[in-house]
Amino acid sequence: MSRNKKAMSSFKETRTYCTLLAVLIGFLAIMGCLFIFSIIISKIDAPSILVTVMSTIALGIGAYSGGFVCAKKRRKNGMFMGLVTGAIIFFLIFILSVIVVRTAINFTFATKLILAIVCGAIGGVVGVNSKSRKF
Question: Which residues contact 71 (CB under 8 A, 6 or more apart)?
Fold first, then answer.
């Protein structure tokens, strides 16, 4: 095996790679949920509270799927890896929302942070305890 392939395969085993991959998959899950929710909202006359609930659900699904993937790939420290993945996903979305929409920190900040961390940790526990398949 060449030196470059060996270095790349060892990088794929690190926590950093697993976390980055999980954050990417978490973002894709959030985007998929938001796409589906936007179709639903365009078909019905939804109150603004429903939009907030749907975005919160999308955040929870994205954090869960990110935590699941990270722990499934790493096969150890599921709760911790899921917790970190959920927190990273939340803070990246928060930073993007501050930059793009210019939102301020409000009372839902802590609630959504706790939701993302808990969903990521649950996904991590489920991922590390799921049957092992080549990922």
Answer: 77, 78, 81, 82, 123, 124, 125, 126, 127, 128
Break the chain into its structural domains and give their ranges: 11-129
What is the model's pLDDT at position 97? 85
In angstroms, rounded to a whole number, what is the distance separating the alpha carbons of residues 23 and 73? Answer: 13
For the stretch 92-132, pLDDT in tens is 998 888 888 877 667 678 899 999 999 999 999 999 998 86
Q: 90 and 59 in contact (C-beta within 8 Å)?
A: yes
CA distance 50 to 40: 11
Enter the pTM of the model.
0.84
Is residue 71 within 8 Å of 123, Cβ to Cβ? yes
